[in-house]
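hi! just following up on the protien thing from before. the input was this:
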Amino acid sequence: MSLSSSYKPETMDKFFSARIDGYEDHMKESPTYEAEQAQLAEQFDVTSEPVTILDLGCGTGMEIEYILRRVPNARFVCIDLCKEMLDRLEQKYAEVMDQITIIHASYFDYDFGEEAFDYAVAAQTMHHWLYADKLQLYERVYRCLKPTGRFVVADYIVTPDEEYRLLDNYMRLKEDGLLDENKLYHIDIPFSMHTERRVLREAGFRRVETVFEYRSIASNPSLIVAYKEDAACKNE
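and the predicted 3d structure came back as:
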């Protein structure tokens, strides 16, 4: 059965532009918000060194303040499609903007370089992409990390049944001609934990750890850390 022709999926940039004023309050409504941010930040080793961090889909940079408490001299490259989000980030972090480079672009198109970053972080941004797209992106993240680099992924995780149901809904939108293949849309197609870990391993990461996983009616946040090389796995 076709979806209603009255439904019009929103492109990623327009979705967030329309919700910029209430975005942070909405994110903080999660009952585990503080725990999520604290545990995300703990994946960054405490140091005064100027480590490099690639922030994918940074939005207003809500995770940055927590990371800076542990890595005060971190150097961020923050990428996002939504100009209004980046403007808000720049306003919030005006006092440390010498440590932040803002990139207004799609992270699917931007060149991350080779072995350029100590860490990459993706907070609540990866649950909109199909497996093949995410695999290609994660392979590029793998290459941009230094040999001891880590990829910190905080995102929504669903059950396998939910994963299949949401993917089926997405494919119906494509079949109904509601999606332009040249645009990025705000449509939720999160993975199950098994699928998310599998795509990270397939991208080349040697060790993948589930640090945090919480399920409730309100939200299903998780935190995964993928290590580029075995040498980065201190407990191996």
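The mean pLDDT is 92.
The beta strands are 52-56, 75-80, 100-104, 117-123, 145-156, 207-213, 221-227.
cheers
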